[in-house]
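Tokenised fold entry reproduced for absentees:

. . .
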Amino acid sequence: MKIYLYIIVAIIVLSCNSKSPKEVVDGKIYFGDKIGSTNAIGISKSIVDLEDGDEKIVKIKGTIESVCQAKGCWMNVVDNTDENIFVKFKDYGFFVPKDVSGKSVIVSGVLSNTITPVDELRHYAEDEGASEEEIAAITEPKMELKMMANGVIIFE
């Protein structure tokens, strides 16, 4: 009877593998929806005319600055102008590896300029491995660029 339990657990674990990349091609790792690498723009160009609360669909290119060290469920992307976008993944449908900081990336999804509350900022700081003192120092909400990504390409 125990063997059936082990088989069931193995099937469940293997079926939860949907968080892995869909495809690796020519040094590019694709996550989520398959997106192309053409027509991606820098972050600074993508935020032109983006008012508070606005949303628009964009494809941006940049560098991964940091990744959630708990699960890979979010990342910060920067460009050469030091603009920063906080990226989460649509419906938790995929995550990225935790060791991809510094790699080039293209991200497609819905960009918005929104206020992040203190409790959420503290949660993300904890995910990133911040100290208790750093987390406690977060006392104000923050206006930031956020993206809900449906597809990601990471360049190896």
